[in-house]
Amino acid sequence: MSELSRLRERIAAGTAVVGIYGLGYVGLPLALRFSEVGIKVIGFDIDLTKIDALNDGKSYIERLTAQKIQQARQQGFEATSDFSRSSEVDALIICVPTPPNAHREPDLSFVTNTVQAILPYFRAGQLLSLESTTWPGTTEEVLAPRLGALGFIPGHDCAQVFSPEREDPGNPDYGTHDIPKVIGGMTPSCLELGQALYQHAIRTMVPVSNTRTAEMTKLLENIHRAVNIGLVNEMKIVADKMGIDIHEVIRAAATKPFGFTPYSPGPGLGGHCIPIDPFYLTWKAKEYGINTRFIELAGEINHYMPHWVVQKVADALNDHGKAVKGSRILVLGLAYKKNIDDSRESPAVEIMELLQDKGAEVDYTDPHIPTFPKKRDYHFDLQSVELSAENIALYDCLVLATDHDSFDYELLQSRARLIIDTRGRLTRQCNVVPA
After folding, report:
1. Is the pLDDT of residue 1 over 70?
2. Distances from the Cα of 348 to the Cα of 177, 403, 423, angstroms
3. What are 51-59's contacts with CB under 8 Å, separation 24+?
4. Which pLDDT does position 171 carry in this prediction?
């Protein structure tokens, strides 16, 4: 019996061991889901604080409770930084970040470093799946040659697939098991094995013809959103100049039962997908002599939005006889969207830095993020401010960057001297300025 036949039998029987590489907002929910259906999971990460927390039954992601971690532990889930244990697993699923560099070019170092750490322990009969967002061709051009250098051939003695993550933190309607799973394989047998593995944990599979198609599918999903958000952000600026409430316009347009999808403007793009993913395609397209002008224009508009908000702050303070320099400003919400604890690429953080650069004294409040997290490009030694009537009165201006449902909006409007509303959440009155 071939190694892939043995793998097929283990997957069908539910006895295959799954390794998840990267235990963040994508990898940890997937690990818990496999554990939930009785699949043995080993989680790999280089962050020892995460490893220790998980093995102690604790969670570091708000929506994933300690109880869920403890239940997974009872099912055999364990976390480790020892990559030599890669030889123990049957399926290796990579869920590490793929951030762009300073020039908006793809940085696959997290992926390639993970693969290099795995390769000494990779063996025949294993399935390698990449979930990290990347440019079309990565699986074929970056991962497969590394396996090939050791003599492994996808579809012959190992399997290789690409299946993009589709997590939506904070979405109460769709969890990991509810979101259809796109998957492409290097060969038909790779695809068959990948589907067989994932369908233990995920309800609906969406097979596509190859890994490039799966890689491009993820990019299209997020480029679609980035472009439409860029459009509505530009419309917001135009409407503001004309004295029109863009949120009222969107609500009215959304009553059309066909041909219109409502998108909400905001202070910029956040999260690890929409602000980043479009530039993977713009970078790869240049290899084919194509300039993706539409995508890049949307990126420019969205990148400008924090600057637009800061200018609205400056104008509003000026109307109140104050300058930005020396003003005390409280940013409401650090997360990139409401009701979550994820501040990756959050426009709120850039707004804070821009205001600080102009001489403002900046604080933030976010019930989901009690301490300002460590970041590559931003450094604030801050704790979340309690949103009390007394504290609100201390600030010259509040900036609503993230409209968490837990904020007391009546208290804000009644106590704040000035509020810049970037989300259209507040009632229009003299101390509220839309941005």
Report:
1. no
2. 31, 11, 12
3. 51/23, 51/79, 51/80, 51/81, 54/23, 54/28, 54/78, 54/79, 55/79
4. 84
Rg (CA), the chain: 24
Using the structure block, give the residue that is written with the tokens 């959103």: 225
Same domain, 282 and 247: yes
- Written as one letter, the residue type at 426 is L
- Torsion (CA) 252, 256, 257, 260 in degrees, nearest 10: -100
Percent of the chain as helix, strand, coil, to the nearest 5 = 40, 15, 45
Of the candidates 145, 147, 96, which has an alpha carbon nearest to the alpha carbon of residue 126?
Answer: 147
Same domain, 277 and 187: no
Counting residues of the chain whose pLDDT is more than 70, the rounded percentage is 100
Q: Which residues are catalytic?
A: 273
Statement to judge: residues 170 and 223 lie in one domain: no
State residue 115's pLDDT score. Answer: 97
Q: Residue 36's domain is classified under what CATH number? A: 3.40.50.720
Q: Is the pLDDT confidence value at 430 over 70?
A: yes
Same structural domain, 7 and 132: yes
Do 334 and 216 share a domain, yes or no? yes
Q: What value does the mean pLDDT of the chain take?
A: 95
Buried b (16+ CB within 10 A) or exposed e, 380-417: beeebbebeeeebeebbbbbbbbbbeebebeebbebbe
Q: Do 119 and 255 lie in a common domain?
A: no
| C-alpha to C-alpha distance for 310 and 177, rounded to whole angstroms | 40
Greatest alpha-carbon span in the chain: 81
Do both 357 and 392 map to the same domain? yes
d(CA 179, CA 352): 34
- Length of the chain, please? 435
**Matching residue, tokens 């599918």:** 217
